Amino acid sequence: KILIIGASGQIGTELSLKLREIHGNEHVIASDIREGKAELMNSGPFEVADATNTEQIGRIVEKYNISEVYLMAAMLSATAEKAPMKAWNLNMDSLFNVLNLAKDKKIEKVFWPSSIAVFGPTTPKDATPQNTIMEPSTVYGISKQTGERWCEYFHRIYGVDVRSIRYPGIISYRTLPGGGTTDYAIEIFHEAVKNGAYTSFLSENTSLPMMYMEDAIKATIDIMEAPSEKIKIRSAYNLSAMSFTPKELAEEIKKQLPEFSILYEPDFRQRIADSWPSSIDDSRAREDWGWKHNCDLQSLVKEMLEGVGNS
Ligand code: VAH
Fold first, then answer.
1. Residues acting as catalytic residues
2. SS3 (DSSP) at 202
3. DSSP label at 175?
4. Where does the NAD-dependent epimerase/dehydratase domain lie (predicted)?
5. pTM, whole model, 2 decimals?
6. Gap from CA of 296 to ligand 1 centroid (Å)
7. How far apart are CA 276 and CA 123, in angstroms?
8. What pLDDT shows up at residue 311?
């Protein structure tokens, strides 16, 4: 059976629904510190639990005979800057909780998301390589970089089958964003449909790596389904689909909504975005386990405007 921790979150919700579609509702247990959307709560078992609590998670693993865990709980970049120690404890203690369950053979396989936030201001910005300088300047990035090192360690020393990818900004309409720096690329669609205008908290030429939720879910399930010997990188794989700036996104929206207008008022999140790559080289994921994205900027805008418009 599969357990998703952080199932009420932006990615966790859609990942839970997709895995239930594939494996059947009773095969996929959702868990989070708080209940999630009705669609999630009504589609299968849900357990309220604290991701950092070893007894609570251990009990769920035993109760449902869990073999695979997707650990999607974390405090994201912008929120983490406001509560550094809380973010560190949540992001790290939840990871140790799950890695130790795997080390003790209580579960067989772990997915843990890293992020392009592991890169910092001294990292080469364009087509950022899989192996390069990583001096993250955010609490979230530091926790993801450290988490990668621990995943690699638990694999090498204890044989834990943990798999990870460095998510870019993930864009979706079914769930609200969770306090990230890339949230502008979600908010803009809701505002465009509601008010025909949006004020971006990132400057117009801030290029960031981005991905549509469907591609992110596909990558997550693909890497978990791949034969273990194909997963040659046990820290985390670079992953990408597209890169764009707020200006390029606004231009694409204007093709569908000609009256849409945008203003730029950068806030504290500009500094975070400026420390991240503009684009990512994900050739290793494509070589090792056959990653390829489907959704580009044009299809993203079409899907998002339709999705927001109908939700
Ligand atoms: C954030 N959406 O903005 C997350 C993600 C690369 C961005 O890590 O913090």
1. 140
2. coil
3. S
4. 2-232
5. 0.96
6. 19
7. 8
8. 74
